[in-house]
Each structure stands twice: as C-alpha cells, then as structure tokens.
Amino acid sequence: MSTKIMFMASSLFQVRPLTCAAAGGLSSGRLVPQPPDLIKWVKREGGFVHQAVRVAQQLDGLGLIATAEIPKGSDLIVLPEHIPLRFEASEADSEKGSYSSLIKLAQHIPEELWAMKLGLKLLQERAKKDSFWWPYISNLPETYSVPIFFQGEDIKNLQYAPLLSQVNKRCRFLLDFDKAVKNEIENLRSEDHPFGGQDVDASALGWAMSAVSSRAFRLHGNKLPDGSHINVPMMLPLIDMCNHSFNPNAEIVQEQDTANGRMLVKVTAGIQIKRDDLLILNYGNLNNDLFLLDYGFVIPSNPYDCVELKYDSALLDAASMAAGISSPNFSLPLPWQQQILSQLSLHGEDAQLKISLGGSELVDGRLLAALRVILSNDKEAVQKHDLTTLRSLSAEAPLGISNEVAALRTIIALCVIALGHFPTKLMDDESLLKQSVSASTALAIQFRIQKKALIIDAMRNLTRRVKSLSSKESVTF
After folding, report:
1. How far is CA 8 from CA 35, 39, 199, 303, in A?
2. Mean pLDDT along residues 178-191
3. Is 104 exposed, middle or buried (0-12, 13-18, 19+ CB in 10 A)?
4. Radius of gyration of the chain (CA)
5. pLDDT digit string (tens) for 145-180?
6. Could you tell me whether strands 243-244 and 280-281 are parallel, antiparallel, or unpaired per DSSP bridges?
C-alpha cells in the first residue's frame, strides 16, 4: 500500500469543490486567490480585534503583527461564542439528515485522530455555498507541509522509525476512511448528503485533518451539571494565525460574556508587545514528532524533543559490553531485580518497553533505574533506596560511583547504537541542506538533524558526568 496520498479531482463540479492541489512545493497559498478580509469579518460578527493588530505575509504563510506598541494585559482578539468552528452533536442536530450522516462518519474515527472528526465538519462547511464560515475557510492554506503529503522518498528521508510508523498509520487510516466514507454516503438522498453531493477522497480528507491538527485548539466546551467542562477542539478564526514559541508574548483565555453569559475566547498580551513584533502563542510543550506530524514544522534545539527507544535486554547487554562492562545480565536478571523491573513496568505481561532520551529528564528515569539495579549485585544497597531516587539523574551515584559510571557508559553506548541506525551522518545532512532541495525534503532533513543532534548532546552531557565521577573515584582510591 502506498504511503503517499494521491491527489484526485472530484467527480462532481460545484462552486466550491473539495479538491486539493498537489503539495510538491508545499505552497502557502490560500484556498482562493483573494479571500475576504478576516479582520473585517470577525468585527462584523461581533468580535474584537485590537487596532494595532494586522495580518502580515511571511515566508511560511500568514501571521499577525503589531503595528504599534501594545501594553501588557490588552485584549488582542476576542471571539464571541458563535465564531469558533466546532463539531458537537446535540439531539437537535442528530435529527438533521446531513448532520446525522456526519455523526455516523465520525464514529469510524479513533479518538487519537480527533482532528479528523472536526475535519469532517470543516469539509461540510467548505462544500456549502452559503457557509457562515466561508470567509474563514477561504483564508486557509490550500496545502499543508505535514508528512502525510510528502512524496514517498521524503517520508523515507525522515529516517526515524517511530515517526515513520505514525505517518504510515495516518496514511493507511485516510485510505481506509476514504472507502468508509464512500460506503456511508453512496446511497444517501441528496438532502442527507453531508458534502452537498460531492465526492470526498483521501486527499480532501487529509487536507481537512491537517487543517484542524495544525490550527485547532482544545478549549472548554459547555459546562456539565457537576460544574466541569469537556475539552472541545475548536478552530479559532484569526487567532490561529498566531505563530508558535515556547516564550510567547500572548495567551488564550476563556471567559463568560457579562452581557449574555456566553463564552468568549480571547487572546491577550502576556507582556508588552513592541511595534513590528509577531503575535506568538505557545502551542504546547511538544516534541518535534508532534510538531512535524500536526503542524508541519520542526523546532531547532527543542527542549522538549526526545528520541524514542525500546527497552531491549539483548541490546542493553550489547551496549554494556561495548562500554567495557563484563558479563552484564540484562537478559537474565535475578528474581529480586525482576521484581524491581516489574515495578518500573519493564518486565512482565503488562510491561511498557518504550523509553526515551532527551526532553526535560535527559535520560528516561525508568531506564536509569533499571541500569542501576541490573548493574548492581548488592541487593541490600539497592533496597535502601526508593524508586524515585533510583530514577533520578540528579541523585548522584546512589549505588556508588562505579555502578553509576557503568550505567552512564551503557547509556552512551546505547546512544552510539541509536546513531548507527540512521542511514546518513549529521555532517552529510548538513551538506544536503546547503544544496537545492524541495521544501519537504529540507523539512525531513531538518527533522532527522535535530534527532541526531539530540543524541550527540546527550552523549556529551553523560560523558562529562562520567569524567567528573571518575575523577572523584580516583581521588577516593
């Protein structure tokens, strides 16, 4: 099965057809050449936009910019309750033929691909000639730079198995969902057809899912009887033009309109915003896998990025021996060691073997604890410490310096093995980026560069720790 979603023309021609342009160049053009002014539309519909906020063209698309200094705490954008686009099924809605069909289609979608559910609503509104949201939808990009639209070779260029698995999973879902949609709507009456009688293919579905995953925010929906709220994905016109940074100058807040009690979605200035500054939100403390999968970009030196590995006893034996440790017993842990591994969810039927390097911890705490325990033959010394201590890298050598050095050297060897799984070296990738390559190829190369750089940085950090510990050991003896 091909992992590339092919672009096919719709078989029915409407005023607003659900077709997608080829994404080879990852163009940032809008759905229509000259879409309506979004700021004017938001204001006309009862929203608020600060007089110093303007839409600006950037290299990678549209963004919002301040044309004058804006004080901290100022409202930048306010959207009344009826402007956000969401997909919530009420009893009244379920009685409407076309909406009922949309609800049935949504039942085919797994929760982890929640963006596709709202994507169905987006496609339905895009197909309508008189959609309330057309001024917003017409401003959406015609293509997205997410990997499901990469050429097959560029998917391979990612070189990172966990992400390749996710990309292939999404592509397979879209191809299967394409068939499910066709089966569901094949014999519907025209008034019950969710997309105005138009064909919907995997390409259009992929466009809609990408539009939602890259632009929607999960906010509070209606209040429940117990006072809590359900998180509801919403597309926020104009607000979703704000760029991302881990150090934002703006933030999204929800509050009730004092006049009618309805929800308002606001963007407020978190700090004083200077003239010509872009308006920036934090999309979340995510790793580069999610940024690329859902948003179509990569964050250099992302402090939340990590490399996913598997806790494999044979691999750890090999890494330990490569680190100069004689007779490691990861494959044959002692019964008391097995008990601790089970508490770490690294042994037994319910074991969760996914571990990671990088991120806020540098080394997965479960991996570090397992290495410290397996490389120790002193049961009493191990049992003096709780799992929290054994999992902490800041707990310096809880089982002794020699044990700690052996654990860290094993992790360094594991890093070397992980780097060896990439077909190209970091220097090769950096040279390729200097050549003339497509936007999607460059994005794939940037992604794998960041993964390799993360592993190398972890190795350097751990090597410094080993040298420091070894010097202390030398002084002791």
Report:
1. 24, 33, 10, 40
2. 90
3. middle
4. 26
5. 999 999 999 999 999 999 999 999 999 999 999 999
6. parallel
Cite the DSSP H helix spans in 216-312: 288-290
Decide if 145 contacts 167 (C-beta within 8 A).
no
**Cα–Cα distance for residue pair 130/260, rounded to 1 Å:** 27
Distance (Å) of CA 115 to CA 171, 233, 293, 295, 391: 14, 8, 12, 12, 35
Token pair listed for 190 = 């025209």
Contact 450, 292 (CB under 8 A): no
Rounded to an integer, the average pLDDT of 287-306 is 96
Model pLDDT, residue 391: 96
154 touches 438 (CB < 8 A):
yes
> What distance in Å separates the CA atoms of residue 250 and residue 272, rounded to the nearest whole number?
9
Closest by CA position to 51, among listed 41, 63, 39, 61: 39
User: How many angstroms separate the CA atoms of 110 and 116, rounded?
Assistant: 9
The count of C-alpha atoms lying within 13 angstroms of the C-alpha of 159, restricted to the half-sphere facing its C-beta, is 22
Residue 68: which residues within 8 A CB-CB, separation 6 or more?
Answer: 51, 52, 275
DSSP string, 178-209: HHHHHHHHTT--GGG-TTTT----HHHHHHHH
User: Average per-residue pLDDT in the chain?
Assistant: 89
Q: Is 137 strand, coil or helix? A: helix
| Residues in Cβ contact with 353 at an 8 Å cutoff, skipping those fewer than 6 apart | 310, 311, 312, 346
Tokens of residue 267, six digits: 């963007």
Q: Hey, what are 291's tokens?
A: 């940024």
Tokens 């632009």 sit on residue: 215
Burial of 420 (0-12, 13-18, 19+ CB in 10 A): exposed
pLDDT over 60 (residue 231): yes
pTM, 2 dp: 0.89
Burial class (CB in 10 A: 0-12, 13-18, 19+), 65: buried
Name, in order, each residue with C-beta under 8 angstroms of 400's C-beta and a sequence gap of 6 or more.
376, 381
Q: What is the DSSP string of 361-420?
A: TEE-HHHHHHHHHHT---HHHHHTS-HHHHH-TTS--TT-HHHHHHHHHHHHHHHHHHHH
Q: Give which of 415, 402, 375, 379 is closest to 466, Cα–Cα.
A: 402
Q: Please report which helix (H) or strand (E) contains residue 60, including its range.
A: none
Residue 225 has pLDDT above 70, yes or no: no
Query: From the CB of residue 260, how many other CB atoms can be counted at a distance below 10 Å?
Result: 10
Q: Which residues of 391-406 are buried (b: 16+ CB within 10 A; e: fewer)?
A: bbbeeebbbebebbbb
